[in-house]
């Protein structure tokens, strides 16, 4: 290996190669940055040679060429955006791994407009003095949720943490044992409570909690009654829970706060479309809850946010807490949320992608699947295409057990296994994420727009041409 090591070119010699300048120009790199990549690759090749490994491209290429090939691969990989758009062919509407709710065009365009300009984030145009970012969407939230006051933090876990810290620190919060849920990423309500400084007081059993369990647990250290909506699982069978209305009455009787963490949070009544039994925020507030919290990027269909709504006295206390600054959201989130809420208040909810996609009928989806299959059979004939009935999920830890009737396109190819085909679609220039079932690739058109159908077809055609 000593002979190979002596053949390695020095850095200054590589820098004089015309390919060095071409790479700098192609990827808009400084010579210093490209040199750092070259040193890194040289070090790797040297280490391989010292371990007795000869580079795979040798002897077809000289070491200088091998270095440039490896450097360009690394630079190209770095140049690709880590956060990139994908086409969601899974049918899961609020797919957590794929970013949950898509924004409406109005919300996305307004967020982009605000992002590239100065804005009235904390400036009052009427007075010419400093304003508050809380004011931007509070009136819209109050109207859409039916609350006295409202504010926004960066997600619902943050909302839970803030409410417990500000309103129940070093005091007891009574929660049903059956509601101590674990949300995405292994975050548990019990652990968030512990971090907040509130003392968790579990009552009842996993499947049954009675009104008397709450009554018996109340003492002079109790600060709050808390109800957690079990939005990511269902307990069926021999069960018992205490309603919001009953908890409101207990709270009022003992002069205690009642807080309901709605989790997914819905301003739209999906039950009217026969979809699930998700509580509507307005109804919970009208029932008398002192404060509620819920997510912005799930059933609401907006950006990631934690929305807190309720009695004015409570929200004012939260706004003045130091965590209000720690957990505040930025101008783009507020812009997207503002436009999303305005769509609710102008009866355009069905234009919000999450609501539209969850509410789509199986017949609407079947038409898209049949159109896709027809075009594929004429333009990418080597693939075998079928259309079948199936079910979609809402996703995002929302509406567990709810299955949405749908139609999927099934795709197979003689030259690829179903996993190989799914992998190739996932690594297309415009990645397409699919499902695999019964040795077939499935594309569920519930989550595919009409514009994306053509992109999916082009992805298959590119795979066909490669073969």
TrEMBL record:
SUPFAM superfamilies: PLP-dependent transferases (SSF53383). Pathway: Aminoacyl-tRNA biosynthesis; selenocysteinyl-tRNA(Sec) biosynthesis; selenocysteinyl-tRNA(Sec) from L-seryl-tRNA(Sec) (bacterial route): step 1/1. The modification N6-(pyridoxal phosphate)lysine is found at residue 298. It comes from the Bacteria. Gene3D superfamilies: 3.90.1150.180, Type I PLP-dependent aspartate aminotransferase-like (Major domain). Converts seryl-tRNA(Sec) to selenocysteinyl-tRNA(Sec) required for selenoprotein biosynthesis. This is L-seryl-tRNA(Sec) selenium transferase. It comes from Virgibacillus kekensis. The lineage of its organism: Bacteria, Bacillati, Bacillota, Bacilli, Bacillales. The gene is selA.
